[in-house]
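Supplementary Note 3. Input sequence used for the single-chain structure prediction.
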Amino acid sequence: MPRMFLWGLLVLLGLVARVQAASPPAAELHVRAGFAGLARPGAWLPLAVTLNVSADLDGIVSVEVREGGRLEGPAVTRYIRKVHARPGVAAHLALAVPYPDPRWPLVVRALRDEVEVARTEVIPTRGEMLVLVVVREQAGHGPLAELPGVRVAYLEEDGLPRSWAEYEGVSWLVLRDLSPRRLDPAQRRAVEQWVALGGRVLLAVGEGGGLAVQALPEALRPVATTGRTVQVGGATLAGRFGGQITSPLPAAQANLSGAATAAVSEAGVPLIVERRHGWGRVVAWTFDDRDPVLARWTGRSRLWRDLLASGPHRPVAGPEITSIIPTSHPIPARLHLQAGLWLLIYIAGARVAGRLLRRGPAWWVLFGAGLALATWGFGMVAWQVRAGTMALVEMTLVEAAPGGDAARATAFLRVLAPYGQAFRLRAAGGVLAIRPLGPTSGTVIEGGSDAVQVSGAAVRGAAHPTLEASGVISAPARGVSRETPDALTVVIERRADAAVGEAFVYFRGQVQRLATVPPGQSTHRLDPGRWASPDDAMADPLRRWVFSRLRADAIIEQDVPWLIGTLDDSRLITKIEGGASSVRAQVLLVPLPTR
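The predicted structure, written as discrete structure tokens, is reproduced below.
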């Protein structure tokens, strides 16, 4: 009896050990979503994920993004990242996901071999106009926080994004107590790219705020501080924004940098300085609006209101472009030929088999083999037709920032799969952000250091899966223009490795074709008698859409000429696996500001 008891105990201990070995390690997930918990619906949402484990974990972190009503059930898109976690060392992941529907929480899970080891849900607080303020003390921002519709997120340096896309939901970035040593290169690059693409930054320099200036890349600095403070009366501020300033106001002594201009100055001291960079603006206040001298100044609210009136630049590319993306794709001619040949072979074989069967039962074996071969052949033809009808349509618009080297590339992808096939895409190296346009269930987007992969399945009879992919690349071309009473002259500088094809100059609702845009710098004098309507000159739908957007959109400066040309840039090509065909169109859009 004791021996049987011991054997039973050993077996029980072995089973327990086996179960423990097979069970996933205990883990804890901590997620920081948005900016101090704030997010703008429809924009990219930064996530900071911290994973602590009790045993080694090689798996993935999955973020489930839901979109759609509760009655029909939400569509779920998964964003996944590989993770390697070790006991005693927290694993940190920074990623961005879209936030399309504030009715649903984000579900974050850690998995090993598709087995869940940790799970949490986060619901960001909704904010339509987000202002990020990097500051140590939150006091003194009452006039800003009290403006209608404004939500203020107070951050420290580690809360700033490391990707330009994460700034999409931000209206303004206010830098007060910013230490250059606490910003990493990725954060500096993200700010510079965001401003080049249309972002807005306020440097509240004030007294002793020179460190905030030094934290920015040199191309963004509107002023260079001297470290000294001067006293001004504040009459120009009061005259501009109303109210009265009854005591002298301390201001940092600063010199203008680069192409910066002083919007407000007093007695030779610049108080509000602005510098443009690409499509964006960087504004510097050399005074501190939280100073006790301004505590009762009634003009503070208007000061902030006038600043926020200028929101981020909106790109030309937008989801409306999907209206011109094809929803069908013709079957390739080779498949028609193969199906026709196989049908002829089948008919000829059937006629021969009919004659042979009249000669005797022995030919029935051959007939069965032929029937099996015909069935296999038609199956192969059907499989090829099914695969041949699948295609990827990609329309890309590359928008160069004026006067700089950065360009925003936005590609709109549509997977045409009328028979409901599964698909797998691999985005180009220049693409960093991909999101579905509209509810699409079952899509998995895997981010990595060098590429982004998308997998999913089209549903027969449902809408075609459509996605938006965007990235920042070096501009294929840039240029300037000069207008005289008798002609318009444009100077274009094209990168040697940029394949720019047929090009037009668009100006005040009309276009003129350029003979060629060679590599390097070229000068083109446009003939006043050769301007034509874009509708007459354009044949492809993408450029016609661009012209219509330029004419209709009030955000576009109508007195700025534009270079619009076809492009063939391999950095922007998204590949579809499985041999499916691809239909691509790339258009380059370059502003040519006057000099």
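The chain has a mean pLDDT of 83. The two ends are 101 Å apart (CA to CA).
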